[in-house]
Design brief:
Number of helices: 5
Structural class: mainly alpha
Oligomer: single chain
Radius of gyration: 22 Å
Number of strands: 0
Strand content: under 5%
Largest sheet: none
Helix content: over 70%
């Protein structure tokens, strides 16, 4: 350690890490909502210009030979909106969690543990619901998705959050015991 430089406590390190994650969640939220917004613009354009030659050609490029390209684009734009809004909301919930831990001064609170547990559940469930909704939308239009819609990372992340929430709850219990002594 350099002389004259104060070493950060573990809590200060955790607080800095949480602040970085809050910023990352904010950036992810912004990009997710921009993604949803661009899909909304694409949806409006596809509906307005549905018989235009450009959408027929785009549909042919996407491999939809028996349907017009505008139907393919409309269905995928709707699913893009669903996916973007879902990811944006999860990022917003994450950002709020990290901000509240910063306000509390520590993530080791009962409220923080409960909030993280709920966030873990949302991280597993919301993308699953979005995938089901998107599959129904694509099925109604009779088209295939233009992009991969998987859920593996959100399930793994949600499970990690659930486990970490138990660690935070335990830390909260230890802090309560120490304060009673």
């Amino acid at each position: 350690m350099r002389q004259g430089r104060k070493q950060m406590s573990n809590l200060e390190k955790i607080q800095k890490i949480y602040n970085v994650f809050r910023i990352i969640a904010m950036i992810a939220m912004i990009f997710s909502f921009i993604f949803a917004g661009t899909n909304l613009i694409g949806l409006i354009a596809a509906v307005v210009l549905r018989d235009s030659r450009i959408f027929v050609e785009l549909g042919n490029l996407a491999g939809s030979v028996e349907i017009t390209g505008s139907i393919q684009i409309i269905a995928n734009a709707i699913t893009g909106i669903v996916t973007g809004v879902t990811n944006g909301l999860l990022s917003l919930f994450s950002m709020n969690y990290f901000a509240s831990a910063k306000t509390d001064g520590t993530p080791f609170t009962k409220t923080g543990a409960t909030t993280l547990r709920n966030l873990g559940i949302k991280t597993i469930v919301m993308p699953l619901v979005a995938i089901i909704v998107n599959a129904i939308i694509l099925g109604c239009f009779g088209v295939a998705s233009l992009y991969d819609i998987g859920n593996g990372t959100s399930v793994a992340t949600g499970i990690f959050m659930l486990i970490f929430s138990v660690i935070l709850a335990y830390g909260s219990e230890l802090e309560e015991k120490a304060n009673r002594l």
